[in-house]
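FIELD: query
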Amino acid sequence: MKTVFVTVGTTSFDELVESITCAESVQALKARGYERLVLQVGRGSLLPAADSCPHVRLEAFRFKDSIAEDIRQADLVISHAGAGSCLESLCAGKPLLVVVNDKLMDNHQLELARQLHMDSHLLYCTCSTLTETLRTMDLSVLQPFLPGQPKLFANFLDKALGV
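FIELD: result
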């Protein structure tokens, strides 16, 4: 069963939860053959019920000790732009769509997502463009992110964040 795993990390990002569970986004996922949607909703106020998304099998939780297994089982990961969530997904070799929270004031997440996108490691969008991105995305353009080189990732972060 093709699965999408959505993670907001330890943050609150209700807008992403709302955007991915809206009828248009669910329809776009179904059109691409995804049948299961697993949401990690963090500290947000929303925890969608299993029956709130017709046409897909929905599971939602706040936190677990580890989301590594959820990432491993996913055919697509949709994540906030936190460095930890991005790195874990990329190192697992999963196609990654990052949804940038454009409501953040000092948005280093956008810089990180933009740099990883320029290097062809992920796709990114905002909540307002999520449905259209789901409809039109081409995951075949993504290049693997080579794991096991933390120094290179640290240097990459410095470059992306202008440090």
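FIELD: remark
The chain has a mean pLDDT of 89.
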